[in-house]
Design goal:
single chain, 316 residues, alpha/beta, inorganic pyrophosphatase (n-terminal core), Diaminopimelate Epimerase, Chain A, domain 1, six-stranded parallel β-sheet, 41% helix
């Protein structure tokens, strides 16, 4: 059972490196300013995040308990939409929100600490808190932050990357003692692309998030990999998993993209209608053999979701 004086810090429902690292780092920041806090995760970690934590010498955070008392103080990291958060969020006391995504459906009965900026990574924002409060950043924390930024910007490949992300990496690299950051980034991408031991259902869930468009729930999943052909070879099985997930989660539509990290290419799987029409109209992309070529649209936050929102806004 959680100590009600402890701030419970966690990222979104399907954890990635930024959400896990930023939760760990923000919990550390709160403790440094004498606020009791602990980081948690909402689900199993992917191989990239495991690699990062092992390299930094950090233990995995515990899974968030499902019996938190009502009114527990929580900090939402790298998300602010209820569909992506913990169950029973409405009964918690949201105290902090740190995010770099669009505003969602979050409402609170009292003022909270909000830190939102359109940067490439949530960890970039938390670093600023350390600097503004004149706190030293340890090698472990620096390793975590640099890793998160590399992950969430694909080492500055994504259009969401900002000069702030680059400057934070440059500022922290000497502290990390990483000899070759390009080699380290490639090791992270290799770990991220290692899907051995995962079922097709788990592969679909790696980058899965649910969004609300005109009161319709859509699942949108992006999988970044340096081995896209391995995923494309499993297309038929993944299409069936998408059909099953759509039915199980009562979704209006579901989209799954395989994104080639090095070539910057997005291959989106299409199970049928209404997905085919939406993708054709929103992205001007035709579907062939149940795959739509979305070109260089690599960022869900900047290249995918805004196009879908614009489509649904004009197609009620």
């Amino acid at each position: 059972m959680n100590d009600t004086n402890e701030v419970v810090v966690f990222g979104h429902r399907n954890p990635d490196t930024d959400s896990v690292v930023s939760a760990l780092v923000f919990a550390d920041f709160l403790r440094r300013i004498k606020i009791n806090a602990k980081a948690y995760r909402l689900n199993d970690l992917d191989n990239e995040t495991k690699f990062v934590l092992k390299t930094a010498g950090i233990e995995q955070p515990d899974v968030l308990p499902d019996n938190l008392p009502n009114g527990t103080k929580v900090a939402l990291i790298d998300h602010n939409e209820s569909q992506q958060s913990m169950e029973n969020l409405k009964n918690m006391r949201v105290t902090y929100v740190i995010d770099h995504h669009k505003l969602g459906d979050l409402t609170t009965p009292e003022p909270v600490f909000l830190l939102f900026e359109p940067v490439g990574c949530a960890a970039t924002l938390i670093t600023k808190l350390y600097i503004d409060n004149q706190l030293d950043i340890t090698q472990q924390i620096a390793m975590l932050i640099v890793s998160a930024i590399i992950s969430d910007t694909l080492h500055f490949r994504l259009p969401t990357t900002t000069d702030k992300d680059r400057s934070i990496v440059n500022y922290l690299l000497p502290i990390t003692k990483i000899d070759n950051v390009t080699m380290y980034a490639n090791q992270m991408f290799e770990a991220n692309s290692d899907l051995s031991g995962l079922s097709l259902q788990q592969i679909l869930q790696v980058g899965f998030k649910i969004f609300l468009f005109n009161d319709q729930q859509w699942g949108v999943s992006l999988l970044y990999t340096i081995y896209p052909n391995r995923i494309l070879e499993s297309k038929e099985g993944l299409l069936q998993e998408m059909v099953d997930e759509k039915k199980k989660s009562n979704l209006t539509g579901i989209l799954f993209s395989v994104v080639d990290i090095f070539k910057g290419q997005n291959y989106m799987f299409i199970i049928g209608e209404p997905e085919r029409t939406v993708v054709r109209e929103a992205f001007k992309a035709n579907t062939e053999k149940q795959v739509a070529d979305l070109g260089s649209r690599m960022s869900r936050k900047k290249d995918i979701i805004p196009c879908l929102e614009a489509y649904f806004k004009t197609n009620h």
